[in-house]
């Protein structure tokens, strides 16, 4: 039986957490460090995509499958992670996820062809799904200062990982495209040891086991189905910006791993800033769904601007960073909407939503490469803009079913798990 604690508004939790956010047990810092490294994996390969394509004689479409295999498996696994962790416990789920990432990141580094890397990235995605679906709930269970402090700490780890990932990928990739894979494996191994040594499970309440079919049945709920459909199309725009832009920058003279790493470091910092600070300010002043109505079209305009200015390196770089600012807001607000849209257990709702959302991201990278090769270099950005506008239309047309999404949010561990799964997309 779960306890509903919806009486506290979302904004109140953010406001109350600042004083104690840095005063945390060692176990919390161990999981937070692992979170940073896990989220680094999302953008880690960005700066080395052109190098992999050149060294392994792969086409852009084949290289973009490094994102697709990772995201497809992550998305599918997300439907089952709450079922697994509710039975074997959070610590075991975290350690299995980290161990799987170490193994497959190492194998990717030793690969001799792009097909092998694509397969090993799929295994990496499985480990990442197991880890990120459990990490924040674990942080909340061990954190000092309440769940709001833990959530802010987790969001900071998310933003830091998204920012550092491309930079580390660029620095290690300037030595070899294999470097980022080995670097991730080493850092995850350190995280594994830290969690073994520092995370204790004695006294932690065991979660109530969930049914295997629960996330699939959850999508039949109108509000959750609407938000999941919107996220499917939104993530197409997200990953056009993240995965295709490195190839758009190569003809403009920006092709080294380090240069691309710095471009996407700026993108990651932008995502972090608006996710942690700007999104709460906006939702304190207007309804969440109204924020989506406003910011989704702005993201579409940014993608159209990238299409129009595709021949200017400065314009493309600026467009990437501006896109990061908008994506940070949308990530946070969409997740908050999912938290309150239904009366389902938050872990079930977020698993269903995030599974669909990751699958949307899996479609975009190879589709963008095909469009660029067959239509024009600007066409992927146009397609991404159309997808984002479709997401906006879904939210507007489904507004009568989304009234609860504009309410207040619980501050329990269930909320923590929902944010953790949703923000990792």
TL;DR?
Its main location: membrane. Keywords: Membrane, Transmembrane, Transmembrane helix. With 425 residues, the chain is mostly helical.
Major β-sheet annotation: none
Helix content: over 70%
Chain-averaged pLDDT: 84
**Overall body shape:** globular
**What is the helix tally?**
16
Subcellular location: Cell membrane
Main location: membrane
Membrane topology: Multi-pass membrane protein
GO molecular function, one term: transmembrane transporter activity
Question: Can you characterise this structure?
Answer:
The protein has 425 residues and is mainly α. It has a single domain (10-423), classed as MFS general substrate transporter like domains (Growth Hormone, Chain: A, Up-down Bundle). Helices cover 77% and strands 0% of the residues. The protein is built from 16 helices and no strands. It has helices at residues 10-16, 26-43, 49-55, 60-88, 90-109, 114-142, 147-173, 179-198, 214-218, 222-249, 257-283, 288-308, 313-341, 346-374, 379-397, 413-423. Helix 5 runs antiparallel to helix 8, helix 11 (257-283) crosses helix 13 and helix 12 packs antiparallel against helix 15 (379-397). The longest helix has 29 residues, at 60-88. It starts with 9 loop residues before the first helix and ends with a helix. 62% of the residues are buried.
């Amino acid at each position: 039986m779960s306890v509903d604690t919806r009486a506290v508004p979302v904004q109140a939790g953010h406001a109350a957490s600042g004083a104690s956010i840095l005063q945390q047990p060692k176990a919390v810092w161990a999981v937070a460090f692992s979170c940073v490294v896990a989220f680094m994996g999302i953008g880690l390969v960005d700066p080395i995509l052109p190098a992999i394509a050149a060294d392994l004689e792969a086409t852009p479409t084949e290289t973009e499958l490094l994102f697709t295999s990772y995201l497809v498996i992550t998305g599918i696994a997300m439907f089952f992670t709450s079922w697994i962790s509710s039975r074997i416990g959070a610590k075991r789920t975290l350690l299995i996820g980290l161990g799987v990432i170490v193994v497959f990141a190492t194998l990717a580094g030793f690969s001799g062809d792009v097909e092998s890397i694509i397969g090993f990235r799929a295994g990496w995605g499985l480990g990442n799904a197991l880890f990120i679906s459990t990490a924040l709930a674990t942080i909340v269970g061990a954190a000092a200062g309440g769940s709001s402090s833990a959530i802010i700490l987790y969001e900071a780890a998310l933003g830091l990982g998204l920012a550092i990932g491309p930079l580390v990928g660029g620095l290690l990739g300037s030595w070899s495209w294999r470097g980022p894979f080995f670097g991730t494996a080493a850092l995850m191994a350190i995280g594994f040891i830290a969690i073994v040594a520092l995370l204790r499970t004695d006294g932690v309440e065991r979660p109530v086991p969930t049914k295997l079919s629960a996330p699939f049945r959850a999508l039949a709920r109108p509000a959750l189905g609407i938000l999941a459909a919107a996220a499917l199309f939104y993530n197409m725009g997200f990953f056009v910006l993240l995965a295709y832009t490195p190839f758009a920058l190569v003809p403009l003279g920006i092709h080294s791993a380090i240069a691309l790493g710095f471009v996407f470091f700026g993108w990651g910092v932008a995502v972090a800033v608006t996710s942690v600070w700007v999104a709460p300010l906006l939702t304190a002043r207007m309804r969440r769904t109204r924020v989506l109505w406003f910011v989704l079209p702005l993201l579409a305009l940014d993608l159209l601007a990238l299409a129009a200015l595709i021949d200017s390196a400065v314009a493309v770089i600026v467009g990437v960073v501006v896109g990061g600012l908008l994506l940070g807001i949308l990530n946070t607000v969409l997740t908050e909407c999912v938290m309150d849209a239904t009366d389902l257990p938050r872990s079930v709702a977020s698993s269903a939503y995030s599974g669909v959302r990751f699958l949307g991201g899996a479609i975009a990278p190879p589709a963008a490469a095909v469009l660029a090769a067959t239509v024009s270099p600007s066409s992927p950005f146009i397609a991404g803009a159309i997808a984002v506008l479709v997401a906006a239309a879904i939210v507007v047309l489904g507004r009568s079913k989304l009234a609860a999404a504009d309410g207040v949010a619980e501050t329990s561990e269930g909320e923590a798990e929902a944010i953790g799964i949703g923000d990792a997309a």
